[in-house]
Structure formats: structure tokens, C-alpha cells
Amino acid sequence: MFFIYSHSALIFEKCSLVTSFFRNFAASSQIGERSQSFFQHTAMKKQLFQFNEVPADWALCFHDTCPVHEECQRWLAGSYAPKKMTVRPCVIAPSLELTGACRYYVNPEPVTLAYGFSDLFSRVRRNEYEPMRRALFAIFGSESSYYRCKRGERAIMPDEQKAIIELFSKYGYADVVKFDRTVQAYDFPLAQP
Question: Residue 33, SS3?
């Protein structure tokens, strides 16, 4: 269930205070190695996060009382929302207090996105080129998506990368699959539960 949420700068002040507390806590000598490792991992995730990459229809979360809010991509996105933003789709979960679990939880693990594959077919035998290219059309969903991915205009998602590697392995070209570039980024699944 979603609603349009209008929030104030109070949310951001609270986030800043919490972040400040954890930074000071991490710097103190009382912190354990495991906690410091978790803080560094969380800080790395936040460095990669760019709010301008969040789709406009992707619901944010502002539930600070949720038991998994600090490990949820929706809450992370909400904590990075610009102060001047006043209206946005948002998660409301009245059953959260009853069940202790949120069905809108999204793991905020960065994924590896690939762009372009200009040399993918350089070592493929001529008689195998066309069937493999047709199979790639099916992986990407259309011929136009295939060409956009080939030119690096659209990201190749991890599941598509895996399918490409499996296809080339099936034809005996496992070592040939190399993408023009890869980047670490957040994935924003559009399918809502």
C-alpha cells in the first residue's frame, strides 16, 4: 500500500544526528572489529548511492521504527531524499508492528551493471554467429534492446549477464565474454509486492 507523503526537514535532521552519532561511535576505541566492519560496509553503500538514480515512481520509506530500516534500500533512498522534495510515493505498513516484517523490504546491495559488448562476437565462428545473435535478442527482449546494450546505451543487468555467459559457454566460448565496462550501482526493482 502506498500514499503520497509530504515530509519536513525534521527527518533529515534526525538522519544527520544518527549518522553523526555512528561516525563518532565508530571513531571511538570502544567499538568492536565486527561493528567497525559493518559501519565501513554501510558507508561504502552510501557512497555509491545517488538519489537522482531512484525512479520517480519507486516508493520510499521513512519508518524509523522498522526493525530492518537501516538495512533497507527504500529507507536508504528516503534518507537521501532532497529537502525540497514535498510529494513522493511512499510505503506505509500498518501491519509492520503486528508482524515485525515488511513485505516492501529491498536489500540495498549494489550490483554490477555492464555496458556494451563491442568485441563479443570477434572469435565466434561464422556459422554460429546468427543463432547466437538471435538468442541474445531473446535475452534482451527485442532487437532494439540488443543494439542499445551492445552500444552501451542501456545497462546489462546481472541476470542478463549470467544468461549471456551461459549462452556463450553452451557454444564453447566461455572465455570470450567481456563487457566494455562495468560499474557498481543500486538496482531499483520496479515490481511492487
Answer: helix
